[in-house]
Amino acid sequence: MKKIYILLFLITTSYFCQAQKTSGEVTLGGLMSAKLDLDSNTSRVTLTLKGPSDRWFAFGLNALSMNSGTDCVVMRSASSFSDDRLIGFQAPVADAVQNWTVTTNEVNGSTRTIVASRAFNTGDTSDYIFNFNLSSLNVIYSFGSGANYNLVYHGGANRGATTLSFTTLGTNDFATVEDVNIYPNPSNGVFNILKNDLTTVSKVRVFDINAKLLKEIDTKNDDAIAVNLSQYATGLYFMEITTANNKMIKKIQKK
Fold first, then answer.
1. Domain of life here (predicted)?
2. Cα separations (Å) of 104 from 47, 73, 80, 133, 248?
3. Distance CA 195, CA 18 (A)
4. Degrees, nearest 5: CA angle 242-170-220
5. In the chain, what is the straight-line distance between the N-terminal and C-terminal CA atoms, in Å?
6. Under DSSP, is residue 146 helix (H, G, I), strand (E, B) or coil?
7. Phi-psi region of 189 (alpha: psi -120 to 50; beta: other; left: phi over 0)
8. Each residue of 212-252: pLDDT tens digit?
9. Paired residues of 159 in beta bridges
10. CA distance 224 to 29
11. What is the mean pLDDT of the segment spanning 91-108?
12. Cis (ω within 30 of 0) for the bond into 92?
């Protein structure tokens, strides 16, 4: 059984490493940071965005300035993470269709962490189209100058632009950047969490496509972890897995 487990681990980690890219966490202006993870298997991008917990903050794609039409996201309130676009040097406007699925909105002291994902190509002309082959991406960011969510001028010191560089994850990255895999996926209902020996999974949460929390499991199990979704309908779900050093989102499909 142990040999089978090791073989499954090697197969799944090899499969994973050929299909994942990451920008790593990049600091933005002191109060913010961003990380983009690309998954070619699912054609989805996951954004981990950190910003101040008491005010608005924004992050834009494929731009170095506030160009009209720039695809962006904005923390409009403590509970509203909005899929927006810029219309020049003024407050952004929300897209008619909200394509980001938020699975984490947590506050730790003065920092808010958002984890959200969407398809590379949403079919929405307002959204930037990700290409797994990209090696870099220009981004812009800004945050409010005061402790409120009024989308007014941010001030010259509270905004900026940078370029994210992407790397394809290799087997050495598996233990630190992406600690676990899920099999089988798709599944008829039971999903097994496969992890390396250095990783302890502390919590597993499952959400539907509307970001509704369906199941939460607290576990310190050092062996295999199984998540049973047999009682739920066929379709797409998202599994948030928390380890000692990381938090990740996995798309899962129930047949």
1. Bacteria
2. 11, 15, 12, 27, 10
3. 17
4. 20
5. 26
6. coil
7. left
8. 899 998 876 556 688 999 999 999 999 988 887 777 888 89
9. 142
10. 41
11. 93
12. no
**Is there a contact between 75 and 57 (Cβ–Cβ < 8 Å)?**
yes
Q: Are 206 and 241 in contact (CB under 8 A)?
A: no
Query: How far is 221 from 201, CA to CA, in rounded Å?
Result: 7
pTM (global) more than 0.70 = no
Asked if residues 78 and 102 have their Cβ atoms less than 8 Å apart, the reply is no
Q: Distance of CA 125 to CAs 5, 114, 117, 134, 141, Å?
A: 44, 24, 17, 19, 21
Residues facing residue 30 across a β-bridge: none
**If we measure between CA atoms, which residue out of 206, 204, 211, 255 comes closest to residue 233?**
255
Both tokens of residue 105? 């909105």
Phi, psi of 30 (to 5 degrees): 90, -45
Please state, in angstroms and rounded to a whole number, the distance separating the CA atoms of residues 37 and 121.
15
For 64-98, write each residue's pLDDT tens digit.
Answer: 998 999 999 999 999 999 999 999 888 899 999 99
Query: Do residues 8 and 185 touch, judged by C-beta distance below 8 A?
Result: no
Structure tokens that stand for 183 in this block: 């099999």
Reference 239, options 112, 121, 130, 117; nearest CA is 117
Which string of DSSP letters, residue by residue, matches 170-234?
A: -GGGTTTT--EEEESSSBSSEEEEEE-TT--EEEEEEE-TT--EEEEEE---SS-EEEE-TTSPS
